[in-house]
Amino acid sequence: MAASRNDSLITAIDIGSWKVSALIARKQEDGTLTVLGTGQRESRGVRRGFVIDMERAELAVRETIEQAEKVAGINIENVVLSFSGGSIESKVEPVEMEIAGKRVEQADIDALFERARERIDPEGRVVLQANPTLYTIDGMRGVPRPLGLHAERLGVDVHVVLADGAPLRNLEDAVRNAYLNVDAIVAAPVATAAACLSDEERDLGVALVELGHGVTNVSLHIGGTLVGLRSIPIGSADITDDIASAFGIRRSQAERMKNFYGSAMQSRRDFREVIEIAPAASSAEQGEMRRVTRAELVGVICQRLSALMTEVGKALDEMGFSGPVGRQVVLTGGGADMKGIADYAQTALGRAVRIGKPKMLDALPSAHFGPAFTTLTGLALYAARERKDLLHRPATEQRVYRMRWFGLAQRLIAALRAGY
Questions:
Q1: CA 239, CA 309: separation in Å to the nearest integer?
Q2: Considering only 8-12, 123-127, 262-266, 379-383, which range has the smallest mean pLDDT?
Q3: What residue spans of 177-293 are helical by DSSP H?
Q4: 219 within a domain of the structure (yes/no)
Q5: Separation CA 196–CA 188 (nearest Å)
Q6: Residues 6+ positions from 302 with CB-CB distance below 8 Å
């Protein structure tokens, strides 16, 4: 089928350390999204959010997109990416100017934006986005629409997201090498917040903790704006490695044990429940089945979770998440699927904790309605919203130019070569 250039199509790709997932959706006239197709493949060549093997990462992206295209029955060219590496930084730049008590006009807002552009200093990094959030009228913060109001001083808070250039370019190249155009790259915490936080939560104050495979991102939202961000290089993969090391088994066995028997909370019956472990040896060797109690498994999991929650607590304290605004924490990401983890986090952090799941989209597969897919769904929701970006340009330079039929032919040739 020929590629569609319909502007209502939105394709999101979430490249994580555990999986690569894609979602193709169509934006309806009322602004809602209808999912046309999804794809998912095991992530390869990515570690803790950074591309470490370009060829393997490119292959994983290509396979994921082709699966989504097959389900949707349409070929796509333009995509929106998430970036979850540990080099993301978020800050708010306040900008003000005098307007001498007259009525605010669009020309005043444009002049304010121009002043904001001059104030943004990336300090050698890449600006992912620079979005004006709420305006200020004569010191009164939180004005959503200043147009037509009288004021002596007009101001705006600009939400700026920065990232290191090299990891960002590696991620973009992995996608462009799969013959796809990158429309935008969105910081994963920003996309995730769009999927699982309500407007009221973001206004009153909430901390979003995304427990991914290789990294945990902690973001703070107050007044409807992301005001703080920390990345912790610990994820659910570290729990898997701890289990594999503790019981002398392969990672695949440890992952299965974690998913089927793992829990973040211990109970008395865990000491009576026995788990049989197959020997981590080749089929040519004979080994005896090992037995461990579920309590031993939970103990290993909780030891790593204790270290993680200690780091999360430190990050929240550094960002000033305390007092009246420091009561609500939303836990999401693939690691949030673990049994009892919300109760564990609530005890460890001393704050109310709930599990964040993505907002339901029309025709979204039930398998995607879980914490592991909040970033993917949030990417589509973020791309569907009309947002003012002061940059007025893609985050990175467009380096690939091609005719549509040529790109599709190249993707077909690459797929055939991969199969032989």
A1: 13
A2: 123-127
A3: 188-196, 199-204, 236-247, 251-261
A4: yes
A5: 12
A6: 264, 266, 344
Alpha helix (H) ranges present in 217-373?
236-247, 251-261, 294-318, 341-349
Let me know whether 69 and 33 are in one domain.
yes
Tell me the C-alpha to C-alpha distance, in Å, between residue 149 and each of 96, 134, 153, 196. Answer: 16, 14, 11, 34
Of 111, 128, 163, the domain-final residue: 163
pLDDT in tens, 1-21: 333 445 689 999 999 999 999
Owner of token pair 């306040």 = 94
How far apart CA 227 and CA 111 sit, in angstroms, is: 24
Say if 111 falls within a structural domain.
Answer: yes
Phi-psi category of 244—alpha, beta or left, where left has phi over 0 and alpha has psi -120 to 50? Answer: alpha
Q: Are residues 327 and 412 in the same domain?
A: yes
* pLDDT (tens digit per residue) in 59-71: 999 999 999 999 9
Q: What is the DSSP string of 86-133?
A: TT-EEEEEEEEEE-TTPBP-HHHHHHHHHHHHHH---TTSEEEEEEEE
What is the model's pLDDT at position 91?
84
Q: Assign 411 a pLDDT band (cuts: 50, 70, 90).
A: low
Q: Name the nearest CA neighbour of 238 among 56, 18, 87.
A: 18
Secondary structure of residue 362 in the 3-state scheme: strand
What is the reported pLDDT for 285?
52
